[in-house]
Amino acid sequence: MALFPSRTIAWYTARMFLIRVAAFIIGLTVILQSLDLLSESGKVLAAAGNTESDLWVYVSLRAPQIVQLFLPFSVLLATLVTLATLNQNSEVVIFKAAGLSAHHILAPLMLAALGVAVANFAWNERIATRASATLKAWQEVEYRKLPKATAAKTQSWVRGGDDLFHAEAVIGRGATTRLDDVTIYDRRGNRLVQVVMAASATPAPGGWQLNKVRLFDVASGGLERRDQLLFTTDVVPRQFTTASINPNFVPLWDLWPQIAEQRAAGKSTDVLEAAAWHKISGPLSAVLMPLLGAVAAFGLARSGKLFVRAVIGMALGFAFFVADNFMLAMGNFGTVPPLMAAWSPFILFLLIGEAVLIRTEE
What we know:
single chain; 2 domains; six-stranded antiparallel β-sheet; 10 helices; membrane; transmembrane helix; transmembrane; cell membrane; LPS export ABC transporter permease LptG
């Protein structure tokens, strides 16, 4: 009933698995980074003032993204190679003769994969998010020198009931919020009644205090000017100050508070919640790979079907990645709840892997 009846065998198989994971991720990163650098080096060097040292800066920002994307694939490939090697050398037969079950053989690999998943999560949230945000900003200025950060002053669209608010600039937070170049599309029953334009707006009890106002009446086509106007609405300042969030650029521990802020501002958070949960389920998928690739470990190698078994294991692994991306896309469209989008592929393929293993080997 012990999880690891033989510590020697457990350490032997886990070490073999981890060495192959490291070999695959290093090899894939070097190859893919080289190909990517060949396509982007011309753009980097074309920017004024850039030298060969900026190519290394690009590599340092792009490599974390490659590792983040291909580490789960590396775990799958390492699983297949490890289990196929054990099967080819009849070591699986020896393990079974020593009294180990199929789950005993896979347990060290799954525990090692859990360690890989934890390392992958830490890498994604501590390194890849920062590198992705910096690289995106650098690419937006066509690899020129990044300007120093300036005070937040962003354009914003907000909906309050039937009305639409647009501000060219949003400065400050809370009661000190100021909107510049404000346009309010006053609609009733989805019919535009008037367009309210103001040079600035500040929060006021029951709505917003508008300054230097122009009122355009749609029905009459008339234009009226006022120095000030109190526009009554349920729209609050935080609806303007909650900026759009890219989950790829924000670590999980910062993403959850921002999701709560978006929810409090009345904005939809389903896409962000699905991405937040996937930050956990994505790296954890490494634990599934030994289970899905287990079909390559069992069956007699001399039967001539080892290659077929390896292909089946690879197909199961890639089927999981396809299902995972499909469900995440459905979550982004709002078709399925965030928790289902992030976790249903993991649970489904966990059950599939267990069912195949129990029916064929246990």
